[in-house]
Amino acid sequence: MSTAVTARTTSFDAESFEQFLSTRNEPTWVTDQRRMAFESYRELLAIELDPEEWKRVDIRAFRAEKFGISTTSKPATSFGTLLADRAEFAGVVSHIDGACTRTTLDPKWAAKGVLFGNLSDLVRDHGDVLKPYLMTHAVKADADRFAAWHGAFWTGGTVLYVPRNVQVAEPLYSLIGLSADGATDFSHTLIILEEGASATLLEETASASATASGLHVGAVELLVASRANLRYVQLQNWNDKVWHFAHQAGRVQNDASLQWTVGALGAKLAHIHQDVHLDGKGAAAEVNGVTFATEKQLISYYTQQTHHAPNTRSDLLYKDVVRDKARCIWRGMIKVDPGAQKTDGYQRNDSLLMSETCRADAIPGLEIEADDVRCTHGATCGRVDEEQLFYCMCRGMSRGEAMHMIVEGFFQRVYDRIPVEIVRETLGQAVERKLGIGGE
Fold it and tell me: Model pTM greater than 0.85?
């Protein structure tokens, strides 16, 4: 596997920010937006992070000064990706070490007005389409220091725009990769579906090397207009040397639907702030999560399902498997505005512990301001049953095979909710590798 050679800035102060801006060829409105975000970043550095969100996530060992924005790079030529070679895609966008390395889109969809490509290019070529949406409705740069950091220094990312009533039949694919030791990725994913549109985007993160350190400070914005239907999948598969911070948000309008699936397998430490807003009457969102943490990994999700309109529905199901000295944290909240009557909100987190030294924290919550709603939550946590293992091993299975069967059965309820077959297969094979079963 080839390695990457990268020159980069080594700090994120005012001088480095101006140097970074000088390398960008962007419209004035983007530069202005960046400057506002940088001012927020400097102010928010002096403000304590929200203790409710961060008190269980220890980032004292994180040193931002060890990382920097790439200015020149020679990306790795091969990646051990989970999804890339499994299907024919309507389009592909790849970013390595913050730089776009590939963009393709089937001409038949381009002819219908679909945009799929690199954010850095599309803000120049289609700024009139993107300006109303980029960090204005879903992820806000003043949310906290990480959102502001991203808003000031984003390096590119994937854009999918689908015009009114266009239904993209084949899935699209996006890769976010790190190859150089100490590389940083600030990529941004922006998906805009106009009224009546539909699309599926499969996105994954990957490391070219098992030993290269890295940093990802990302954002995901999913904007689903009335009667539109979006399926979005993100599989996080960094190596265990990468720090991963992200703000992710979806906004769903009248009678639209969002199915959002996440798989969290890698990273040294990952913390994701994930929001779903049901903005229009009849809006629906289903959020599925599979997390598998091993060694000393820490994977944390802070999720919010906010119902702003009546007759809306949200359904969140996360399943966590934790082993060795790893830790998983999930803090979930369902919020219902006063006018959001007839809301149906549900959230559940289940954790399976595979060692005596691992830990899982699950904290569901409700904030209900309407009086005609159905909102429920739940969380479970338990050890692998030794009697189940013994039963399987008495029937000819090895301990590893028996453990795999139990873990797969634990995840099956989430798999059953995923309509994209290649995603189900990929998650199953990734779990095998995590358990040390089978080959690559």
Answer: yes
